[in-house]
Specification:
By secondary structure, the chain is of the alpha+beta class. The protein is built from five helices and 19 strands.
Length: about 270
């Protein structure tokens, strides 16, 4: 194996975190801002790109690797955590919003996994984190993830996160699955990804489910999330107070609601 062989344990239910156990000199790389805690003896270092072996080919190679990450909306930098002690040491990374952390064993999934642009959490050193261009124009324009998705390649462990409850679907050859474009977490390299028009004027205008489905055709493995972050953020924004007050502030029901809640403002 080119990637470091790391052990891990996932804790929690709604707000999970993954604990990585590092042998001496082993390294795990993670997105900036995902760090939770680490034991003494682990050194933290900021690096360009993902620190994979393919990147270590001079300054140009490092800049190219980092530049790919900018296209996916990520930072130029990642953080590497190396165990410099003589015994095993642990470092933990947390999911940024309620959901599930998905362990991806790339060696068992053909060496490549394609996922949402912002779903990558951490991986063993040696795993390459890059971009995957959508080949079909229609899929790129209307597929919910744009022309560019994120990919992780190699033979080690990687971890991605999803929102809400996670569903794992094993598709047989030719089997078709239709998914809301925002609910797609990722899929293996053999899955054929496309989009499909919902159909029907009533469905399109009044259905409230968007204009397109994501279609995934097997064989391969697909991961689906029940609560995309964009949907969660939209609900929070829609419910946020406007100009310092609630949306129903001028209504009778709004006043009664505040009284019942113990809010004495007038």
């Amino acid at each position: 194996m080119k990637a470091h062989e790391i052990d891990y344990q996932i804790y929690g239910e709604e707000m999970q975190y993954v604990e990585i156990e590092l042998d001496p000199q082993e390294v795990v790389v993670a997105e900036a801002g995902s760090f939770m805690m680490m034991e003494n003896g682990i050194k933290m270092e900021t690096i360009f790109g993902d620190g994979s072996q393919d990147q270590q080919q001079g300054l140009f190679g490092k800049l190219l690797s980092a530049g790919k990450r900018v296209l996916t909306g990520e930072s130029l930098f990642m953080t590497a955590y190396q165990n410099q002690d003589f015994g095993k040491r642990k470092v933990s990374f947390a999911s940024p919003y309620p959901g599930k952390i998905v362990p991806i064993d790339l060696q068992q999934l053909g060496g490549k996994f394609i996922c949402q642009k912002d779903s990558f959490l951490c991986a063993a050193k040696g795993v390459s984190v890059g971009i995957e261009f959508t080949k079909k124009i229609g899929t790129g324009l209307f597929g919910g993830e744009g022309f560019i998705m994120q990919k992780v390649e190699g033979d080690g462990m990687a971890f991605v996160h999803s929102g809400g409850t996670l569903a794992k679907k094993e598709l047989q050859s030719g089997e078709l699955l239709r998914v809301d474009t925002g609910c797609l977490v990722g899929f293996t390299k053999d899955v054929d990804y496309d989009i499909e028009f919902v159909g029907g004027i009533k469905n399109t205008i009044f259905g409230g489910e968007g204009v397109f489905f994501a279609t995934l055709r097997g064989p391969g493995t697909v991961f689906i999330q029940s609560l995309p972050f964009s949907r969660l953020a939209g609900r929070i924004y829609a419910s946020a107070p406007q100009n310092g007050g609630s949306r129903e502030e001028g209504s009778l029901l709004g006043g009664l609601g505040r009284m019942l809640d113990g809010d004495n403002r007038f």
